Amino acid sequence: MASKSENRLTAIHPAQQKVRQDGMQALRQIGTAILDFALPPRCPNCLDIVAAQDSFCTPCWRSIHFLGDPCCAACGLPFAYDMGEGALCGACHATPSPFDRARAVMAYGEVARTVVLRFKYGRRTGHARLIARHMARHLAGMDMAQVLLVPVPLHRWRLWSRGFNQAALIARALAREAGGEALVDGLVRTRRTPPLRRMSAARRRRLVQGAFALSPMGVERVRGRHVVLIDDIQTTGATAASCARMLRQGGAARVDFLCWARVLDAEEEQPASLAD
Ligand SMILES: [Zn+2]
Ligand SMILES: [Zn+2]
After folding, report:
1. Section 65-74 average pLDDT
2. What is the DSSP letter of 153?
3. How far is the CA of 181 from the centre of ligand 1 (A)?
């Protein structure tokens, strides 16, 4: 008899289980909030104490090469001086950019690398908010009600081993910061691609061709929308261009690209792991 009542007490209805999980999640969130409150905010690069959450200390801030105007209207390549509205760089004149507008928060360098390494491999997933806050200024002036934020997908093996797609976390954080809708599984990676740096442009194009596709959800949602493709680092641009082709084939009205850092000097040394 005792065991019967115990059974009744220990058996958990799925609805109760859900309440319990939600409760645990709420507790964890409160815990994080208390920690955020108790621990002083630190510079995401050098870890010195700073005045506000998600801000860099002055020396690190000064070392960052922020990208913005004046730049190529299409790909965002910085210009030394203002060449007038709509001016394009030589590369975009020769081959039209796959994007209506591509922008990066900063040039790839020490700070960009440190933040991304801690985010991806140190599991500092809170860095998605830091990155999104900086990205948000590049969305100013857009009708965010029309914007669909679509992350560059990871291959499922990589997703299993890391446990999260950094670009998807950034897209979600950006939707919270700036508005717009994050469609985190709009694109899928149908096969793995090797690191593309140091390969010829033609070889890179061949390797990424057919490596991405719209998911059934993407097919349904992309048509007629202003899509902003989201990634952490732009190295060669071949991956993003391949995604852009899929989004255009799916009928997107406009395709932009926004990332945390762009490698400006193709010869810059990067850890191989950054390729994904
Ligand atoms: Zn610092
Ligand atoms: Zn350009």
Report:
1. 95
2. P
3. 32
Using CA atoms, how far residue 112 sits from 49, 117, 131, in Å, is 19, 9, 10
Q: Assign a CATH topology to domain 58-275.
A: Rossmann fold (3.40.50)
Q: Quote the CA–CA distance of 67 and 36 in Å, as a whole number.
A: 30
The answer to whether 260 touches 116, Cβ cutoff 8 Å, is: yes
Contact present, 88 and 72 (Cβ < 8 Å): yes
Residue 29 or residue 273, greater confidence:
29
Edge-to-edge order in the sheet of strand 181-182: 101-107, 254-262, 226-234, 147-151, 181-182
What is the reported pLDDT for 188? 95
* Among candidate residues 148, 134, 116, the one with its CA nearest the CA of residue 234: 116
Q: Which ligand is nearest to the CA of 94?
A: 2
The answer to whether residues 29 and 103 touch, using CB atoms and an 8 Å cutoff, is no
Query: What predicted TM-score, i.e. pTM, was given to this entire model?
Result: 0.82
How far apart are alpha carbons 228 and 102 in whole angstroms?
9
- What is the DSSP pairing of strand 187-189 with strand 212-214? antiparallel
CA 78 / ligand 2 centre spacing (Å): 9
How many angstroms separate the alpha carbon of residue 55 from the centre of ligand 1?
9
Give distance in angstroms: CA of 225 to centre of ligand 2: 23
Q: How many CA atoms lie within 13 A of 49 on its CB side?
A: 4
What is the rounded radius of gyration, in angstroms, for the C-alpha atoms of the chain?
Answer: 21
